[in-house]
What does this fold into?
Amino acid sequence: MLARDVAINSKDVAIDKDILKVIMNRIIKDINDVTTIKSLVQTNIENCKKIITQIEKSMLSMEFSQHYLIKFLADGTLTKEDLLAFYSGEEIKDRFRPIEKEIKALGA
It folds into this structure.
C-alpha cells in the first residue's frame, strides 16, 4: 500500500540545470565561508594563547622585581646572591613552566 501511495503521488521532476547550478554554487560559497570563519577562529585562539602567555610572564616578572625592590628598600642593599638570583631570574622560569603547560592545554 505504501509503494502504491508513493507511485500514485509521485511527480515527474524536471530539473533545470541552470537553477541547480546556481543553488550548488551558493552552497559551495557557504561552505567556503564557514571554512574561512573556522580558520579565523583557530587563529584567534592561538593569538589569545600568546597574549595570555605574555601577560603571565609579565605578571611573574613584576612580582619577582617587586620582591627584590621591597628587600632593597628595607635593607638598603642587595647581597651578591640576591643580585645573581635577580639577574638570572630562574625563579620566574620555574614558576612559569606549569602556567605555560596550562595555557598550551587551553582549547586543545
